[in-house]
Prior knowledge:
The structure is a homodimer. The first copy, chain A, has three domains: 15-51 and 475-587, 3-Layer(aba) Sandwich (Rossmann fold), CATH 3.40.50; 84-269 and 416-469, 2-Layer Sandwich (BirA Bifunctional Protein, domain 2); 282-378, no CATH class. In chain A, the strands form seven sheets. In chain A, strands 3, 7, 8, 9, 10, 11, 12, 18 and 21 form a nine-stranded mixed sheet that branches. Chain A is α+β, with helices and mostly antiparallel strands. The first copy, chain A, has helices at residues 15-18, 54-60, 76-96, 109-115, 142-150, 198-219, 339-342, 345-350, 361-367, 462-473, 500-511, 532-542, 552-557, 578-587; strands spanning 64-68, 71-74, 99-100, 106-108, 125-128, 135-137, 161-170, 185-195, 224-227, 238-244, 250-255, 261-263, 282-288, 294-301, 304-310, 316-322, 373-378, 416-431, 441-442, 451-452, 454-461, 490-494, 522-525, 546-550, 560-564, 569-573. The first copy, chain A, is globular. Chains A and B meet through β1, β2, α3, β3 and β4 of A and β1, β2, α3, β3 and β4 of B.
Amino acid sequence: xxxxxxxxxxxxxxxxxxxxxxxxxxxxxxxxxxxxxxxxxxxxxxxxxxxxxxxxxxxxxxxxxxxxxxxxxxxxxxxxxxxxxxxxxxxxxxxxxxxxxxxxxxxxxxxxxxxxxxxxxxxxxxxxxxxxxxxxxxxxxxxxxxxxxxxxxxxxxxxxxxxxxxxxxxxxxxxxxxxxxxxxxxxxxxxxxxxxxxxxxxxxxxxxxxxxxxxxxxxxxxxxxxxxxxxxxxxxxxxxxxxxxxxxxxxxxxxxxxxxxxxxxxxxxxxxxxxxxxxxxxxxxxxxxxxxxxxxxxxxxxxxxxxxxxxxxxxxxxxxxxxxxxxxxxxxxxxxxxxxxxxxxxxxxxxxxxxxxxxxxxxxxxxxxxxxxxxxxxxxxxxxxxxxxxxxxxxxxxxxxxxxxxxxxxxxxxxxxxxxxxxxxxxxxxxxxxxxxxxxxxxxxxxxxxxxxxxxxxxxxxxxxxxxxxxxxxxxxxxxxxxxxxxxxxxxxxxxxxxxxxxxxxxxxxxxxxxxxxxxxxxxxxxxxxxxxxxxxxxxxxxxxxxxxxxxxxxxxxxxxxxxxxxxxxxxxxxxxxxxxxxxxxxxx
Amino acid sequence: xxxxxxxxxxxxxxxxxxxxxxxxxxxxxxxxxxxxxxxxxxxxxxxxxxxxxxxxxxxxxxxxxxxxxxxxxxxxxxxxxxxxxxxxxxxxxxxxxxxxxxxxxxxxxxxxxxxxxxxxxxxxxxxxxxxxxxxxxxxxxxxxxxxxxxxxxxxxxxxxxxxxxxxxxxxxxxxxxxxxxxxxxxxxxxxxxxxxxxxxxxxxxxxxxxxxxxxxxxxxxxxxxxxxxxxxxxxxxxxxxxxxxxxxxxxxxxxxxxxxxxxxxxxxxxxxxxxxxxxxxxxxxxxxxxxxxxxxxxxxxxxxxxxxxxxxxxxxxxxxxxxxxxxxxxxxxxxxxxxxxxxxxxxxxxxxxxxxxxxxxxxxxxxxxxxxxxxxxxxxxxxxxxxxxxxxxxxxxxxxxxxxxxxxxxxxxxxxxxxxxxxxxxxxxxxxxxxxxxxxxxxxxxxxxxxxxxxxxxxxxxxxxxxxxxxxxxxxxxxxxxxxxxxxxxxxxxxxxxxxxxxxxxxxxxxxxxxxxxxxxxxxxxxxxxxxxxxxxxxxxxxxxxxxxxxxxxxxxxxxxxxxxxxxxxxxxxxxxxxxxxxxxxxxx
Lengths: 589, 589
């Protein structure tokens, strides 16, 4: 459905009186009133099926619009949210002592070859220019920043150094989806840290985590911080920041009792549990290696839970009992398309077995006859067969998946649960992963040979965060924004019968701020051609944290109605104390 | 020469006391003092030959750094200048009632084919992605914005609409040069206007010109506004904003007496002058058509000036007399490599003769034997020969170039002069050039068929403006910034012997601002490891508008020295009245 262009929101022009700073994105007409603030919204409540589709709400609300598959234009409301989010990030980066710069979006194949990341990345977008210069669009800037700093920093005295930017990044996404959550062009905050000694780098890492926690706390939304694998970014220390959401593509595991949180790759088993598995409880799957030469047989137990069974002789026995809650009868066959449900493929891969996890069943069947080798992998709970049909059976590995309800690896009483989550930020300790190949070396205090710097890289997905927050807070009436990134904190809505000056009077009260007093970032909707009901639905759709209505109560007794959907507030207020009342509500949001 | 990293500028942390707004790009250390503000400068005066090379000064001063040919990273100081410039643009766009958005950098071949610009543009950077989607990097956004607005605006009631963005653009520049002046990746402000009727569009055009003039006035630098040809952008009404500079690649013509200014394409001749040209005074050149099929002979007079010669019979005669000041003897041969010095090739091209202006002499010679046709072009001052050696000689055209000293076409007494200039902004009335092919139609008030919108597009080269201003104000000591875009308005520099608190005290006085009182945007350089002389040279190189020194006068009688290089000011001041004194100086900058 095409979003429509609104007629124009207005508010009093305060530019001359109070300086420019409050009027950045709002337009002023020649009669000294704001007009033409672009709100291309349908102004009606979400339609069936749209409630869960926050991306459709962002489009309908006039925040953004898809330009091409996975590529978006930010409209004025969306840009306002993005600029407020950027401001919040700047604030927390400043507490870290990080300096802001702006790296080019263009990088080169040569530099990526030097770091060794060129061939591994299939999502690089290449530029074809007249000189065939091997230009790429950066999906991330480790190479460029390391090369830049290598040319400018030569002594430990110049460290620590913390540099960040907020800029567009590019990825040749195979299947762009869910709007801002997975796009080809996206906005990231990326911070790079440089230290001399390893222990300094770890201190820096901790200070970044503190800044990230403070940043997320200000959004006032629940988030998870998961231990994470640093993957092909190198290094060992890494954390992911997640919002729990059914739209998420990551699995985050957490304990019902302690604060253990880990992502799918890193979630651990409780290792000291041992028990006996009934031999019949076995599944086996067939896979193939990425190079198509090797057939891989995997033997795992049925999903089972360790229970302590009292025996007839008075002793107790640890026994694994099957869990039909995990294994629906329909999946009882060892169909390889379900392999990921039963086998921890991360563990298989860690054992240096290059199993192809993306292959489809029919393709697999056509390739199997051509394989020349066969290897077997047995989970540690599955006993070896007497005569394995391969000459070199692999050792027992721990490749059973973890299932919801499994015991927590950290505490005695907790059970693990898994939730779908959206990853919105990530911290990495990189070590010398980039400083070594790109020769970012510094002299130390001891006059010894130069050493590669200790680096960290720390991202926040800015556009993804906007999409994630929109999805987190959307309800059946529309979007809903945390105060700190809302396009406006408050909207003053008037019935068409209320004189223009009345709306402006209320607006002025909310915006009036002496030094040291907070003001409420407000916009007026006094469009005369729309009904009050239409304008309220529109305000709900856009998701202003607080709505101030000049309706019947205003005409009868000069009182406004203050609404806050997130807290179910709908209350009449006098003008006296209105600003304080609204600020009090905003403090909760 | 590689720029070096500074040790760190410090200033007092005001974050807790006065809110965050003043601390955006400056880092705070854990002892509540700012540190690690990244100033990778050599801290020494410009070297030989560097005075004219403002790009080298920007690199040495730590504003930017070349990443690849024509591709730059903005370092913290450079980003600060860019952000202040963007803020100034936002301010003037707000007075126009324009709303800010952010369009994707990615566009598509398909859309550019629809507007008819795809084949004409040889500077488009293409993306190669896995699906071969025909993605491009936008050099400008007419296609995208028109397509966006076409989908959202359907009635004249939604107009006028003014939308702008400040974003990166891309051009496959054949020879990137002069740093930010001609780069592959650059920052532009582009405003697009949409009106219903032609007369409204012209009003909009005038209001944009007013806003542009106000914007340039705030920079307090002399600029020229030239009538311009709108080229392949379509439409008729167009103006260019130029800074006069020897680094410029444009020629701007202006009158010594009236306010006539025009660019090379549009500069006019005084048409009512007629006179007789001595027949001997003829030059001819040989060229070739772009398709290599046609030899083109061009006949023009020697550069000449019309003079009024008193004759022996008492009458007066208008006669063209040669101008050896224009035509040095060494160029007397009709060597085609000098064709542009004598022939107005724009006029030749306007007569639909597709002459190849870029061909080299040797290449020309090798192609000439293969041509099948010959055409002759005679300037209107050159008489036809009796037997032209072509069957269809072309009519006389006005293809003589305009030379400095030629009479002004607008006033009686003025003479034209030409200056090298850098184009930094451009306004275009587009008409329906894009709205027609991209079907951006609106219904009118009369219920008649929908009509294409009347559009305008208006650019400011943000990164180019930074490069141009740097070049305009650089002197033998370094850069120099207009107050309104300086990275900081003022720097407090202390000798190593002055206690830290003293610098902070002066800093606090300059930053102290009650509501309504201006503050001075200040930074402190109290780096202990550098001498005062080093730090002053560094401050001169970076180009802070005002420098406040705590040196000998401070130690002896608690007075600071206030320096302003642009106005040759070096004066002692008491702390009492210091802020007012600095603000007074800043008002001039």
